[in-house]
Every structure is written in structure tokens, then in C-alpha cells.
Amino acid sequence: MRALARAISLVEDGAPEAAAILREAFPRTGRALVVGLTGAPGAGKSTLVDRLVARYRSERRRVGVVAVDPSSAFSGGAILGDRVRMQEHATDPGVFIRSMATRGHLGGLSRAASDAIDLLDAAGFDPILVETVGVGQDEIEVARAADVVAVILVPGMGDDIQAIKAGILEIADLFVINKSDRPEADRLAADLQAMLTLAPEDGRPRPGVFRTVALRDEGVPELREAISSFVTGAGAGQRERRRRDRAEARFLAVLSERLLGRVLETAVRSEGINAIVEEIAGRRIDPYTASERVLERVVIR
Amino acid sequence: MRALARAISLVEDGAPEAAAILREAFPRTGRALVVGLTGAPGAGKSTLVDRLVARYRSERRRVGVVAVDPSSAFSGGAILGDRVRMQEHATDPGVFIRSMATRGHLGGLSRAASDAIDLLDAAGFDPILVETVGVGQDEIEVARAADVVAVILVPGMGDDIQAIKAGILEIADLFVINKSDRPEADRLAADLQAMLTLAPEDGRPRPGVFRTVALRDEGVPELREAISSFVTGAGAGQRERRRRDRAEARFLAVLSERLLGRVLETAVRSEGINAIVEEIAGRRIDPYTASERVLERVVIR
Q1: Residue B196's domain is classified under what CATH number?
Q2: Where is average pLDDT lowest: A248-252, B33-37, B199-203?
């Protein structure tokens, strides 16, 4: 467990050893079921993930959790709440929990999360639950990396279906109405069904709608079953395409990160990134011309 | 107006003319006040932006609006709601509204939004209101590009202050409690004040808390005043640092996008990106080794 934690940290920090670690791990990956769980803050994702973990543990499966919270980027650390909430599983060697904030610019978050998933996978954790705050582009990227994506909604959060944007609809394999003991739950379920009925056919199976009250463990066994059923049933045909999409996104993210790193180290360092930034901030040079100047020094054989 | 719309489209699409357009526009930029407005879906951002636009119009200022919604990435278009809502200003030549979905991976969204802001700025729009869904990394990047950032909250969205994550707190220059005629508004205001009192000193002025009911135009004049007061008062000292941070982020985003584009065109095309992706998806090569192979062909003089 300690070696795994350390490996994830090295990978997350982009340490020099990271590439070698991932290279070693890679042939052992591709076995775990990756479950994405996404929803707005306050939807009760954390509690639901917690209950799912308990469920899988009762089946003696080793469970990995990657909790992604880009909004903690600025405070630089994991959310205290996540730590507290997961304390039930903190001493269980069959559960590995990792909270992740963002890793700088440019897609670094989904790259780091994918790497962490690979390491957990190689270490034999299965399933791996990936929890994201489901609004931003990066989080959607992370969710897309999953074999099955559950979108978690909560009654009374918005005034209407407006909160369920098209993007969320398009990544959802399952909808979960959490806190479904609230009075507005029926209306949300009806709105959701109406929306799903009206949604254009895109060849994917229509997502099922499930109700849970995670705090009281209600509906969680059914959700756990639905996840399995999706993967072996309705979603089986998409699995290959998704894995391919994931491979492409990862390749581009890794390549881009390394390219920029290399160029900043060599081409830019010699004249100093600060000097360039000052010139741009002072409107003496635009970012495109500044980039062109650097690119002139990059040769592809 | 048509030329501007076309220029923004070219820039957004990364057309060959984009760099030349931005190069021309750049010396004319840096004059507009850029106001970021961010909040969860359903917070009423759109209505509030609409009211602020009306307010600035009554002062005969030409107003630009950039509405960023990454969740519409999958549907590929702007949100119908945005279009409908803004119809009041649609025929007003003193208002320019642009909705933006995501532009692919890797920070493309904040890059495209920054470019659009520059074009509006060069065209003489001032202020420019930038509306984002305030959870993901990309949206936070966009908000950070602003001279002043208002975070919009709404009572009763979450059960507690949990929804106001540390990251949001750290980007907020002003807090707006919209729909503040709801009964939970007082509790939210009290929670927020308590949180602000407890927040560690980071040298920035403590954000003010404002109440609005955008639908009835209540509190909007006060908010408009607060925006000006922040920029000339409490926020004046930060403006240079922010502009520098913005310049750095833009330079890196543009450089990264161009680098990757160039490499994909030349080094990768010859052997075919699909072949590489298939190998990664089949776990025959890891993304790091695949990237290394491409990078071996990149030489920096």
C-alpha cells in the first residue's frame, strides 16, 4: 500500500521516475472495471461512493477510489471532507483512496487521474471508482475514461431540468437520483424521463434512472447491480470504442505535456520565460508571435 | 459586428488566419474591464448577466458578453437557453454576445475565450462580461483571466456550505447571493460571512457579499457599483499581477497548442496517430513510451 501511494505521488508530481513506473505497470492494466461517478457539489457523491465501496467490500473485492476535485486547486490540497468521510475505510487494506486536486494547466488533471487508475489497476484493485465534480471539461474527460458513468442528481438543487445540461446527458450511462426521499424527487424523475424520451437517438442504450438515499444505504444494492448489468449488457458493445478514445486522449495529453516541458526547458529557458511573459503583459508582443519565435527553434526530423 | 463575429469564429476554430487576426488586434487590447461571473448551473448567472448588460447599456457603454459552457461540448453547440434569454439585447448593436462551448482538449477553451475577449476589447467593447460555470478547472482558468470575479451563489442549492469549495473562495473578489428572496438566503449569508471570517489571510481584500434578485432587477445597481469600486479600490493593487498571470497562461496555452499541432502534423502523421492509439489501447505500448518515440524526432536548436 505504501509503495502504491508513493508511486501515485511520483506520477502525480510528474517526477522523473514516473514514465518508468507507468511503463512497468502498463502491461498489468486493463483488467479493472472503472466506474465514473459524477455530479454537482452537494449531490451526495461522496456518501454514495462510500456505500458502494462497502458493498464491493462485502463481496471481498479490493476497491480503488480516485476522487478528483479541481476546485481544490487553489488550496493545493485534498478536501478535508473527503478524508473525514472515508475514515471508515481508512484502515481497510482492501480499499485504496486517493484524492486529487489539479496538476497545473492543460489537461494535467485527467492525465494524472488516468495514471492513478492504471496504477491501481496494476495493483489489482477492481473496481476502481472515480468520483468527479461533473461540470467542467476536465472532469468530463475523467468521467469519459470510465467503462460506465453514473451521473448523480439531487432533487431541489436547481429549479428545473436546466441543471442537467446536454453534456451531462451525453456522458451518462446511468442516472442516479440521490436524496430521493425529498419531496421534489418525483418531479425530477418525471422531468428526467421526459428528457430521455425526447433525446435524439444516438445509437447508445437509453440510460436507466435509479433512486438512492445514500445516507441510509437505500437503493445502493440496486445501483451496484445496474453497474454490472450495464457493463456486461447494454454497454458491452461500447467498451472497445471507449478504451480506444481513452488511449487517444492519454497519448495526446502525455505527448503535449512532455513536448511543452521539453521546449520550456531548452528553447525558452535560454531567453527566460519571464521576459516573454513581461513582453506579452505589456502588450509589446502578442502570444502568437511569441510562440512562433519559440517554434522556429523546434525542428522535427 | 459581422466582421467581429467572423473574426471570433476563425479564432475559435483555430483557422490559419487566427494568428494574424490576433496579432493585429493585440496592440488595441488591454483597455476593457473584464468581469468574470461564475457559479453552478441554476444559480441564475444568465439573468444576472442580462441585467448587468442592461445597466451598462443605460450608461451608453458597449458591452461584450462571452458565455462559456463546457458542458455543451458534447452537443457541439451553444445552449438554446442562452440564446433565448439574451434576445432582448440581440438587436442592440451596443451589445455583442458570444456563447462558447469547448474547443477540444488541453486548455483550448480558456485559450479561445481569452482570444475572444481580446477581439471584443480591440473592437471597443467595455466592459466585457465573461460568464462561466464555476466548478471545473478550465472555467476557473477563464474566471482568473478577469479583472474582477464575482461568484454567484443561490440559497438552498446544497445543504450547507460544502458547495462553496476552497477554490471558489480563492478566486472570488465579490460574492453574490442571487435569488436572495428565498427563505434560506439569510442562512447562506451568515455561513458565508462565517467562512470568510475564518479564511486565512492571504493578503487579498476580503470579498464583499451582495444580495440580488436578478429576475426583479433587485440589487443589480449595487452590484454594478461594487464591481467598479473593487477595480479602482481594493483590487487595484492586484491588477498588474493578474495581467501578468494571464499573459503567462496564454503564452503557455498558445505555445502548447501550436507545438502539439505541429508535431501531430509532421512526426506523427508519417506513422499515423491511429496506429499508435491502437497499440496503446491494446496495451502493447504505454503512452509514455509512445510519446518518447515521437519526442525523439523533435530537436530544439
Answers
A1: 3.40.50.300
A2: B199-203
B173 lies within 8 A of chain A by CB: no
Rounded distance, CA A235 to CA A108, Å? 28
Query: Which among B22, B28, B99, B106 is the top mutation candidate for probing chain A, defined by the most A β-carbons within 10 Å of its own β-carbon?
Result: B106
Of B137, B252, B260, the CB nearest to A138: B137
B221 and B247 in a single domain? The answer is no
What domain range includes position B241?
Answer: 237-301
pTM of the model: 0.76
For residue B106, give the nearest of A139, A253, A286 by CB distance: A253
Asked if B251 and A268 count as a contact pair (C-beta separation under 8 A), the reply is no
Residues in chain A with CB shorter than 8 Å from the CB of B135 are: 40-41, 70-71, 133, 135-136, 139
B137 vs A131, B76, B132, CA distance in Å? Answer: 15, 20, 11
CB burial readout B101-115, b (16+ within 10 A) else e = bbbebbbbbbbbbbb
Number of domain units in chain A: 2
Segment B219-234, tens digit of pLDDT:
999 999 999 999 998 8
Number of CB atoms found within 10 A of residue B57's CB:
15
- Nearest chain A residue to B109 by CA distance is A137
Q: pLDDT tens, B185-208?
A: 998 898 888 888 877 776 777 889
Q: pLDDT digit string (tens) for B70-85?
A: 544 333 333 444 444 5
Average pLDDT over every residue of A88-106: 72
- Taking an 8 Å cut-off on Cβ atoms, the answer to whether B165 and A26 are in contact is no
Q: What is the pLDDT of residue A160?
A: 44
Residue A80, chain B, CB below 8 Å: the answer is: no
